[in-house]
Design goal:
Number of strands: 13
Order of helices and strands: EEEHEHEEEHEHEHEHHEEEHHH
Structural class: alpha/beta
Radius of gyration: 18 Å
Distance between the termini: 26 Å
């Protein structure tokens, strides 16, 4: 059962705790600095691999040291990285994240090679051979917003592949472009702000209903500390967040997607799969970085009792 993660690949450099940027050339000593694979495709790929899935990741990265490190990190986790294309004219997408003591995560970000990804990077037959295709950040890999790519998705879905989608940005113009993918997706997992920006509805249930009308069979709106909302044609259900001590919220959405996809792969319905996603997100929130504290599926499910 192979999952293909397709989209945004980012190298994150994180430091914690950071209460402010020092003046001039002053130095602040922090407790920890980490480098991780991140982004709605790469971060999800690593989380999926740790949860026991076979994962192939497809995206565009630079032909640079950052790209070398990102490939090394992902390959070490067991992710098949042969689908990553290297760009000589663009650097690997990267972020610097000074994590606040309360887990907040402002960022300094370079979009880089993610903006160059096109359907040409997807190998023939790859999507149809996968059990699940996860579109991670099509709002920033807008080269995939192409009728030829939509046809590839539709062909794969007709062959039994499940397509999930998550977003990366909170920029209204990019999110408007991502709406074109919705008729070709089975399960859509935006956060609350993204759902509101895409629909003009601040209420998560109304936003989810509006998104369902555009094509997906399931919309899962993640709401941070307020849990998540799972909406289908049969109705909407609220799931609470799990009570954990939050260290860093980086990658929680990616981990939620990985838990959700893993639940589906184990034959769970969407509500139970969302509970698996909730537990995966709660696990990651307890440490620094998008893969923090995530060891295996048993440890994640133990959070659910």
């Amino acid at each position: 059962m192979t999952v293909v993660t397709l989209g945004a690949h980012i190298l994150d450099v994180l430091a914690r705790p950071v209460e402010g940027i020092p003046d001039g050339q002053d130095t602040v000593v922090v407790e920890r600095i980490r480098v991780t694979a991140a982004g709605a495709a790469a971060g999800t790929a690593v989380a999926l691999a740790r949860l026991g899935n076979e994962v192939v990741s497809v995206g565009a990265i630079g032909d640079d040291d950052l790209g070398d490190l990102l490939v090394r990190i992902m390959a070490r986790e067991g992710v098949d990285v042969r689908g990553l294309v290297r760009r000589t004219a663009d650097q690997t997408s990267a972020s610097i994240l000074p994590i606040r003591p309360d887990g907040g995560r402002p960022s300094f970000h370079v979009p880089g090679a993610n903006l160059t990804l096109t359907a040409g990077a997807v190998g023939p037959g790859l999507l149809g051979a996968a059990s699940t295709v996860h579109l991670g950040g099509p709002d920033v890999t807008f080269g995939l917003n192409d009728p030829a790519f939509f046809a590839m998705l539709d062909t794969a879905r007709a062959a039994g592949t499940v397509v999930t989608m998550d977003l990366l940005s909170n920029m209204s113009d990019l999110l408007a472009g991502a709406a074109a993918f919705l008729p070709h997706v089975d399960h859509f997992l935006p956060n609350g702000e993204q759902a509101a920006l895409m629909t003009g509805e601040d209420d998560p249930e109304k936003a989810a209903a509006a998104l369902l009308a555009r094509g997906p069979s399931t919309v899962v709106v993640t709401l941070g500390g307020d849990g998540s909302l799972v909406a289908t044609a049969e109705g909407a259900h609220r799931l609470p967040a799990l009570p954990v001590e939050v260290v860093d919220t980086t990658g929680c959405g990616d981990a939620y997607c990985a838990g959700f996809i893993t639940g589906l792969a184990h034959g769970k319905d969407v509500l139970e799969a969302a509970r698996w996603g909730t537990a995966a997100a709660a696990t990651v929130a307890q440490g620094l970085g998008s893969d923090a504290c995530l060891t295996d599926l048993d440890a994640v499910l133990a959070l659910l009792g």
